[in-house]
Amino acid sequence: MINRIGERNSIRGITEKPEHYFMQIKLVDLERQYLRYKNEIDSSIQNTISDTNFIQGPEVRAFESELSKFIDIPFCISCGNGTDALQIAMMACELQENAEIIIPAFSYIAPLEAAALLKLKPVLVDSDPDSFNIDPQKIQPLITSNTQAIIPVHLFGQACDMVSIKKLTENTGIKIIEDNAQSLGSEHILNQENIKTGSVGAISITSFFPSKVLGCFGDGGAIFTSDNILAQKIRMIANHGQREKYQHEIIGINSRLDTLQAAVLSVKLKYLIRDISKRQKAAQFYNEKFEGVEEIVPPIISSVNSHVFHQYTLRIKKKRNELRKFLEENGIPSMIYYPVPLHLQKAYSYLGYKKGDFPVAEQLTEEVLSLPMHPDLNPEELSYIANKLLAFFKA
Ligand SMILES: *Cc1c(COP(=O)(O)O)cnc(C)c1O
Predict the structure, then answer these.
(1) 255 lies in a domain?
(2) Which residues line ligand 1 (CB under 6 A)?
(3) Which of 269, 284, 307 is the last residue of a domain?
C-alpha cells in the first residue's frame, strides 16, 4: 500500500518522498496485532467453525472463566456489546423509572443512552481536568433521596477516584455500576490493596469493540459481579429472562457473545498483559518527548492508579485544531475523544442542560487530542509522531 500523501507529492513531481512515505501510521493497528497472533487465532476460529456451536458454545464459558480470573472478580457474564452490558447491569439493579442515575458529562454516549432507554433520570456531573474522569466532589451535592446509581466511567485507561466514590455511597443503597470499557486490566489501590479496575461496584462492565484494549473481531461485551445471585439474574436477563429454555421468569433481552468472538478473545487474552505493557512503553516515550513543552499537557496518572492507555490523550492548550490538521498533512492520524460533551448532545436536550453547565467537560472537548496508540507502534513511528508535534510548536 502506498501512503496517499506520498503518492500525491510524487505525482506533482516532487522526487523526494516525505519521511512517512514508508510508514503506515494508524490510530489503532488491528492488522499488525492480528498478524502477530494469526496462527493461533486462525486455528481457534477454524475449530469453532468445525464445531458449529455458534451460539453459547463451550468457548464462551471458557473465555468467561479466564477473564474472570484475570480481573479477579468471581462472575463474568459475556454479552453482545458494551452498551448492552450497561443496559443489562441497570436492569439487574432494578432501578426504578425516574430514579436518578449519576453519569459523567465528558464521556462516551453509552451510559447515558442505556439510562434514557430505561426511562431513568440521568444526572450529569462535571469531570476532573487532570484525569478526565468524573469529579467525586461534584457528585456529592447532586445526591438526593432519589439517587439510585452512579456510573463511574474509567476513561482512556485509568480508574476514577473509587475511594471517594465508594465513600459517597456507603450506607445509602446507591449502586455503583463501573463502566470499564476503556480500562480493562488497569489497577488502582483500595484499602492499601492493589486491585483490578472494575471490582469496587456492585457490577462492572466492559466492551470488546475491536479497538478496545481487549478487542474481538466484531461486537462483544461482558458484565462482572462478585454477587452470585446478581450473576444469575444478569445471565437470565442477557438471555431472554430465562434460566431454562422457554421458561421466561423475568423480562430480558437477547444479548450474547458469539462463540467465534469468544474463540478470538481467548487467544488475545493470553497476551493482554504483554500488549498493555507495550502500550505503556509507547506512552512513556511520548511523555518524555513532551516534557516541558508549554502547550502540551501529557496524561496525568493518579499515584494510586496504573494506566493501560486505551487512548493516549493530550490536552493541547493552543491551536489544537491546527495541530491536528498539520499532523494529518504529515501522515499522522489523531482523534478528538470527545468533541461534544453529553449535555450538549441534541438527543438529550430534553434533560434541560445548557452550555456553561459543565465548564471542565466543555473545556476538555476544546483541548483533547488522542495520538496513535496501540501495541505495535515501532520506535521510528513514535519518534516521527512526537517530533512532528514538537516541530509544530517550535515553528
Ligand atoms: C466502547 C464503550 C462502551 C460501549 O461499548 P460497545 O461495545 O461499543 O457498545 C461503553 N462505554 C465506554 C466508555 C466505551 O468506551
Answers:
(1) yes
(2) 81-83, 107-108, 110, 153, 179, 181-182, 207, 209, 219, 221
(3) 269
Tens place of pLDDT per residue across the chain (395 aa): 444 444 444 455 555 677 777 789 999 999 999 999 999 999 999 999 999 999 999 999 999 999 999 999 999 999 999 999 999 999 999 999 999 999 999 999 999 999 999 999 999 999 999 999 999 999 999 999 999 999 999 999 999 999 999 999 999 999 999 999 999 999 999 999 999 999 999 999 999 999 999 999 999 999 999 999 999 999 999 999 999 999 999 999 999 999 999 999 999 999 999 999 999 999 999 999 999 999 999 999 999 999 999 999 999 999 999 999 999 999 999 999 999 999 999 999 999 999 999 999 999 999 999 999 999 999 999 999 999 999 999 86
Beta-bridge partner residues of 207: 221
Give how far Cα 257 sits from Cα of 54, 60, 215, 216, 376, Å: 10, 7, 12, 10, 27
Q: What total number of domains does the chain contain?
A: 2
Q: CATH no. for residue 238?
A: 3.40.640.10
Domain around 357: 5-28+272-394
What spacing in Å lies between the alpha carbon of 221 and ligand 1's midpoint?
A: 9
Residue 83 included in any domain? yes
Q: What is the pTM of this model?
A: 0.95
Give the residue from 269, 300, 319 where a domain finishes: 269
| Separation of CA 337 and ligand 1 centre (Å) | 13
Q: How far apart are CA 34 and CA 46, in angstroms?
A: 15
**How is residue 34 written as a grid cell?**
492480528
22 and 122 together in one domain: no
Cα angle vertex 45, ends 42, 46, to 5°? 85
Measured CA to CA, the distance from residue 301 to residue 310 in angstroms comes to 13
Residue whose C-alpha cell reads 475523544 in the numeric block: 337
Pocket test for ligand 1, best of 207, 308, 313 (most atoms within 8 A of CB): 207
Residue 33 lies in a domain: no
Same-domain check for residues 279 and 202: no
